[in-house]
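Appendix C: a fully annotated inverse folding record. The material below is reproduced so that readers can follow the format used throughout the book. The structure is listed first as tokens, followed by the designed sequence.
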């Protein structure tokens, strides 16, 4: 979070807002602010992860960047220029540079098309290559993600979920992108396959110098892949910092609770004095709160928490939306000492 565009930022998002209009069973309209004043930057070749519970708004951010959902307010800059992807030929150069790996590989392929035809659609974003080159590149991409090139002739229904996710990655690589949005890339896969997909993504990032925007709730994946992490709760970022600090020295009570609930002590990243146990579950009505949106679940709640809070830099490169974060840290440490 710098407040200005820098040359080494591939992507910068400033005060992004997204409001959805929904209807209840009685067809009454109401607005839900899924993304509320979110700002962040991503450097070239880094992995920026957004974590949080389902319904926090993290996937909406990626869909806005790719033009799959319109933003309500805010500014987005890609490679130093305002980003707006439209459904026309003028946006083809941008679509080539920005790609996505979907959460559910089984629903992200057209069942009527062969794998080859699906890859051709994305290879078409590269201009100046003929059909022979595209055919060769399609087979090379399938081989590169660890599959038999002859699989290009199959339909999605003939592939396993793990194979389809590898092909999902191959398809995202087909246009030779600069940034790939990873939308929960392992959540629908068997545990035995998840590590393979993570290693494949890291390998391709190293080989091609790709930037990743990773959305995940699996903190094990974040611990392996991310450089920096933003923790999101009900449309707002509550903490942003380097991955190592998120796990070893989190400051926001929600971050601490999220890490505690993930049960990842075996990774050797967690300190015992970071433990916070949150009560209850994410509540949509808390979005309307003018102050901290975690008050109904936080064990450190005080009346002052009802006042509007901005995200501020409490420690170098560690941004937190909690006026009491440092006091919480001290109180937890004292509790551990006294035990």
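Designed amino acids, in order:
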């Amino acid at each position: 979070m710098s407040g200005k565009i820098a040359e080494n930022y591939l992507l910068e998002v400033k005060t992004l807002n997204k409001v959805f209009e929904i209807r209840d069973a009685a067809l009454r309209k109401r607005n839900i602010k899924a993304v509320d004043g979110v700002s962040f930057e991503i450097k070239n070749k880094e992995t920026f992860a957004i974590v949080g519970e389902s319904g926090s708004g993290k996937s909406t951010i990626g869909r806005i960047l790719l033009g799959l959902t319109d933003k309500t307010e805010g500014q987005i800059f890609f490679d130093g220029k305002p980003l707006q992807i439209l459904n026309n030929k003028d946006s083809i150069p941008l679509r080539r540079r920005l790609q996505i790996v979907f959460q559910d590989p089984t629903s992200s392929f057209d069942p009527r098309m062969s794998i080859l035809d699906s890859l051709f659609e994305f290879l078409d974003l590269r201009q100046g290559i003929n059909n022979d080159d595209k055919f060769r590149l399609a087979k090379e991409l399938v081989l590169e993600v660890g599959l038999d090139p002859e699989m290009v002739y199959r339909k999605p229904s003939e592939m396993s979920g793990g194979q389809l996710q590898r092909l999902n990655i191959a398809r995202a690589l087909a246009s030779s992108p600069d940034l790939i949005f990873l939308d929960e890339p392992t959540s629908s896969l068997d545990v035995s396959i998840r590590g393979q997909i993570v290693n494949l993504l890291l390998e391709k990032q190293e080989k091609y110098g790709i930037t990743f925007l990773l959305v995940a709730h699996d903190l094990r994946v974040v611990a392996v892949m991310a450089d920096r992490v933003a923790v999101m709760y009900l449309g707002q970022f509550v903490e942003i910092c380097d991955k190592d600090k998120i796990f070893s020295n989190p400051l926001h009570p929600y971050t601490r609770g999220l890490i505690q609930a993930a049960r990842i002590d075996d990774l050797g990243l967690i300190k015992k004095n970071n433990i916070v146990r949150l009560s209850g579950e994410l509540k949509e009505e808390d979005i309307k709160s003018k102050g901290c949106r975690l008050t109904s679940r936080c064990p450190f709640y005080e009346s002052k928490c009802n006042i509007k809070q901005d995200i501020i830099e409490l420690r170098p490169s560690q941004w937190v939306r909690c006026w009491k974060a440092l006091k919480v840290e001290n109180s937890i440490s004292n509790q551990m000492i006294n035990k």
